[in-house]
Amino acid sequence: MANVAVIGSQWGDEGKGKIVDWLSSRADVVVRFQGGHNAGHTLVIDGKVYKLSLLPSGIVRRSKLSLIGNGVVVDPWALFEEMERLRGQGVEITPEKLVISESATLILPIHQILDAAMETARGSDPIGTTKRGIGPAYEDKVARRGIRVCDLRDPDVLMEKLDNMMLHHNALLKGLGMEQVSAADMHGKLMEVAAEILSYTGVVWRVLDEARKAGKKILFEGAQGMMLDVDHGTYPFVTSSNMHAAHAATGSGMGPDAVGYILGITKAYTTRVGSGPFPSELDNEIGQFLGEKGHEFGTVTGRKRRCGWFDAALVRQTVTISGIHGIALTKIDVLDGLEEIKVCVGYELDGERIDYIPAGQGEQARLVPVYETMSGWPGTTYGARSWAELPAEAVKYVKRIEELIGAPVTLLSTSPERDDTILMHDPFVGK
Ligand code: GDP
Ligand code: IMO
Ligand code: MG
User: Fold this and answer.
1) What are phi and psi of 107, to 5 degrees?
2) Angle at CA of residue 252, ends 247 and 257, nearest 5°
3) Same-domain status, 273 and 335
């Protein structure tokens, strides 16, 4: 049996939460390995809606172990709020069920101040971040001045590190004409939450090693999507982490061969929140139809998601770069009722035909989509639980996507509900 890594293949919000929740019935451990509470993962179980940002989507199942790996950035206050909200919905969260890596980096209130300040400083060309402090926290991590979960165990070391961190940030705040932030205040705030965070803290790489040796099945839960990857996405309109499947290993503390089957979660059309290029965007009534029918509003910020046709060239690229073995195709039901459906199969750039998204910011902005047109289908795919229930044209659409992206559809999702899912190939069996 293989472990499985779930990663988004577009710009996030592909339905990863639903698929991780569904797959977690077959797993023992679910581990988050990057991102933070910029993620918004929605699960619908028997009509009840659960919204998760930092907690792994396996948390709703009683017997599963949930891990937050070293690659995640953790805002303790946001985590407690989320835990309280979920407990209010009857989800049990205990240190036996949830372990946070001692080497995960913390998001502090200063990071949110900086995130907002930098967005303002970008003027008319912001990234459109979630303003959760994600970017500034990762910057501090890489600059070696970050505060990690383990630092909460040692108040003196913590104070030294905060002094060092604030020396840097206060110089920046001063330059921007903003109020200074006191390292001592930050220390006080952190000490208030230290005991509770530490009660969930553990050595995640060892927990994973023990799980692996005991033959347990591990599900790696990616946040965001490959086009938001800091190396492979539409830079600089990206987030500050890697969602590439290889990072499932580095962000949790396992060898690369532990990752196993790489499942790309892929929406049957395309959406994006925030700024940046989007070649197949539809700024018309069809885009509006997709947004309304697909309820395309951000889980985290409530912002309207931009919508467009399925971009097969984009997904082919992310399948190739991240080594996706198969995809879970979600939200096909949102296309029900359309007379014709277009699929982007490549681009024109300055009059030349190309079949991939080049790296340059200006080039990406100038891409003109090249479409193939397919017919829509009569009837509905909504809630279908077997291949046989799908209209013939919907099957044709799925088959064409497989051909264009060069990967098989392993799972098909036909509604937000957990069980409205069709399994073609069990990813835990491997390739
Ligand atoms: P994630 O960030 O990838 O976990 O995705 P989000 O939860 O942010 O957004 C996906 C949205 O689509 C959620 O509201 C899901 O409940 C919903 N959803 C997931 N799969 C399907 C599907 O197959 N059909 C429909 N109609 N909705 C779905
Ligand atoms: P899930 O896991 C969609 C986007 C933001 C912004 C950019 C940078 O739910 O798929 P950040 O706050 O991370 O610095 O913002 O990345 N973004 C997402 N878009 N889904 C997400 O997560 C996202 N997380 C970040 O909108 O454009
Ligand atoms: Mg989301």
Assistant:
1) -95, 125
2) 65
3) yes
> Position of tokens 């995809």?
327
Ligand 1 mean position, distance from CA 416 (Å): 6
Residue for token pair 């399994």: 423
Distance 178 CA to ligand 2 centre (A): 26
Note residues around ion ligand 3 (Cβ under 5 angstroms). 13, 40, 299
For the cut 90, the answer to whether the pLDDT of residue 1 exceeds it is no
Q: Any idea which residues carry the catalytic annotation?
A: 13, 41
What tokens appear for 413 in the block? 């999702």
Between the CA of 162 and the centroid of ligand 2 the distance, in Å, is 27
> Is the model's pLDDT at 298 over the cut of 90?
no
The 10s digit of each residue's pLDDT in 205-240 is 999 999 999 999 999 999 999 999 999 999 999 999
Task: Look up the pTM and report it.
Answer: 0.97
Q: Which atom of ligand 2 approaches the CA of 301 most closely?
A: 26
Tokens of 419: 């069980």
| Residues found in the chain | 431
The alpha carbon of 205 is separated from its chain's Cα centroid by a whole number of angstroms, namely 21
pLDDT averaged over every residue in the chain: 97
Based on the domain organization, do 253 and 271 belong to the same domain? no
What are the pocket residues of ligand 2 if the criterion is a CB atom closer than 6 Å to any ligand atom?
8, 11-13, 38-41, 127-130, 132, 134-135, 223-225, 228, 239-240, 273-274
- The CA-based dihedral angle spanning residues 265, 324, 33, 364, taken in that order and rounded to the nearest 10 degrees: -80
Range of the domain at 156: 105-197
* Amino acid found at 260: G
CATH label of the domain that carries residue 110? 1.10.300.10
Nearest CA to ligand 2 atom 16: 239
Asked whether residue 255 falls in the same domain as residue 383, the answer is no
pLDDT at residue 113 is higher than 80: yes
Cβ atoms of 234 and 277 closer than 8 Å: yes
